[in-house]
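Quick check before the chapter quiz. The format below is the same one you will see on the exam, so make sure you can read both the input and the output lines.
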Amino acid sequence: MRSPFLPTKTLRIDLEPDEAVIFSRFAEAKRRAVRRAQKNNLQIYKSTNIDEFIRLKNKSVGFLGFITS
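Here is the expected output.
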């Protein structure tokens, strides 16, 4: 069993620059992860449905091994 992971940082990203500038500021490993997600057809959408957000968050923390309070 994997040990739990406790995120210790929050990232704040200035969204004013264009996408290429923001992307260029990511570390290489993060850029690779984004490209992999694009290759695997990751879908991103905006929603104001808090219940859906909580459902997805809970689903994600389970397989990522995060501990939430």
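If your answer matched, good. The mean pLDDT is 83.
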